[in-house]
Write a structure and sequence with these properties.
about 350 residues; single chain; Diaminopimelate Epimerase, Chain A, domain 1; alpha/beta; 6-stranded mixed beta sheet; binds manganese (II) ion; inorganic pyrophosphatase (n-terminal core); elongated
Amino acid sequence: MSEFEYRTNSTIRSLVERLTSARSVMILSHEKPDGDAIGSCAMVARALDALGVPSETCLIGAVADSLRSLIPDLAVRDIPAEEPVDAHDLIVLVDTGAWTQLAPVAEFLRERRDRIIGIDHHARGDDVAGERIVDTSCGSCTQVLVPLIDAMGVSLTHGADENRRFSIAEAAMVGLGTDTGWFRYDNCGAEGLKLAARLVEAGADKNRLTRVIEDNDRPQRIMMAGRALSSARFADDDRSVVMSLSLEDFESTGAVAEELAGLVNHPMSIGSLEVSVLITQTETDRVKMSFRSKPPKTRGDTCFIDVNELAAEFGGGGHIHAAGARLDGSLEHARAQVCAAITKALQAAGFSS
Ligand SMILES: [Mn+2]
């Protein structure tokens, strides 16, 4: 039996034919849709709208208010609050092809494989869509979609109107911007930057987009950032930092855990730093730890901290440069444990003291 390979098994021409001849389309993406997922759904919905094809976008799980505000005009079905309905002759799956990211609708999709087309930029996925295009050279799924929209004969400016709706170009920019750290990460090369230029020329307003998507914190987050930063203790010749936030910090600022995302990254701008940890008290005797590390100074260098391994020492895990774990006990207990583990890991990785 040959092993399934997640790669392109169709052509732009074939997918465009399916899209333009559909009577009604269901659009969906991965659970907890991010900027690229929402941007990709919006691109497909608006392009179909330009051709007079009705569509319904299914959003699985929680969606940030900031992202939802980009698509007030789209027909949206929220899952699992509502069930998917069998009213469409074509299903378009964007920014994923993995069953693990589609659990609430997996059963529905399994019975309809031949009606599904997939457009994605991830290296791994499953046999969800009968026909698919997977382009891992693209920084975002919205980047993969642009040639399809072009082949559909729809202008990237479509969708913008006097109510300042977001155009196809802006939806594309939301995906490309958020998935590439606003053009900073390795996944944004010459093609991504060329596309960004084209999107700006097509009217994508990046001031408006960054304001809606990035600059929308509540003051409570900044208050918590202040507390986390003032708790910072540097060690290992300023190569490591550990910060902590207590239940009392939450109480006196009124912040909620969901709005702390990314706080652990703050100290990463320090030149000497290799690893940053934020310990958050979740219950009187329980903490959550977030770990971040920097990639090696030059590509291929082996001198860096694998925080996936570090988190594993505490029963957690994640990725090489971003991981998490939970631990019983007090903040101070967790601090002592983590500091010792970091010093050991830095030595093992070859950082000289
Ligand atoms: Mn993506």
